[in-house]
Write a structure and sequence with these properties.
44% of the residues lie in helices and 15% in strands. The protein has helices spanning 2-26, 30-55, 59-99, 111-132, 171-184, 204-211, 225-230, 232-241, 266-270, 279-283, 326-332; strands at 140-145, 154-160, 188-192, 219-222, 245-246, 250-252, 259-262, 292-295, 311-314, 338-343, 346-350, 370-376. Helix 1 packs across helix 3, helix 2 (30-55) crosses helix 3 and helix 3 (59-99) crosses helix 4.
Length: 383
Amino acid sequence: MLFLAMYVLVYGAMNAYLFLKCRSAWAFGMRTGLFLALIMAGMIVAPIFVHLGERLGWETASRILAWIGYLWMGFVLIFLASGLAVDVYQMAGKAVGMMMHQNRPLWILSSRAAFFTALALALVGAVIGFVQARTLQTPHVVIRTEKLPPGTRRLRIVQISDVHLGLMVRASRLRAILKAVRKARPDLLVSTGDLVDGQMNRMNGLAAMLASVHTPLGKYACTGNHEFYAGIAQASEFTDEAGFALLRNETVWKGLPLALTGVDDPAGRRLGKEKPAPESSLLSEAPQGMFRLLLKHRPDVPESGPFDFDLQLSGHTHGGQIFPYNFLTRLSYRRIAGLYKLGAGACLFTSRGSGTWGPPFRLFEPPQVVIIDLVRESGPSSG
């Protein structure tokens, strides 16, 4: 209930900001204001009704409402940023005018002009964000290590993360992701959580698409928070049908040139469905000298070590998904996206994710299918 109250309060305030900007531009009457307020109230509660509709099995209605509600949410988020930017410009302009002893400096916009400037910026941002959400990038990372076995000169790992298969991310988006995966020709494919999103209705065809991708060393996954939100039993079954071995606080290495550890997301602990096991003890199960790869949904690492892994692959942050909200995401996660060298040869790579959650936008934070090459070297590891 606390989360629901915070959601209504914060998202309601964002819509109220848009409402006030509209009123300042047009000075409309009570009837128009009431009509606009009712529309905004409907948009605020739309995600709640989407969730309820999914639970009741009303898939088509929920999908339509999800597209309407989340498109609106994305637009409001972008308008809030552009509107505040225009507000800052107006305040700075007025300050300069006061210093120059000008009551109405020419560079100050009228209320209507300020609104339309913010609106134009928001619409342009929404279009760019919608296109970028469907523009996959394939960053290529090379990590040199002494810990690959003799005869293995290069091991290619491809990481997908935060696909959020569900009402809005469906076959067309997954097809593009899998095309990038196949093009990379991985030895090992990993999913670092949130493969699914919310309720999991009629997703059998999507599991078959994932299962059609074959890699020499197999496919492995860890849980994200949305696996638990969707229902861990259903999510585990889908992941299995997709051909992934779901590592829930366990380590595997037999028949592999490296040790793979997957840990449950903390959401499982809060819901009482996590398989408890200390991360350090899981990582120590593998034989000494093996390269240790940790699959962990959230990019949480010890600030000063020790690091029991050689490489941690994470996601969860989406890189902030919509600029400039990536700066807010950094308040919770310092290592929001990209490769981070942690010390003692250990590295973390945080993926921006391969899909989208909520608003179908990615403004200046495009999705990724990450290619990681582990390259064997005989000298000291460069990390």
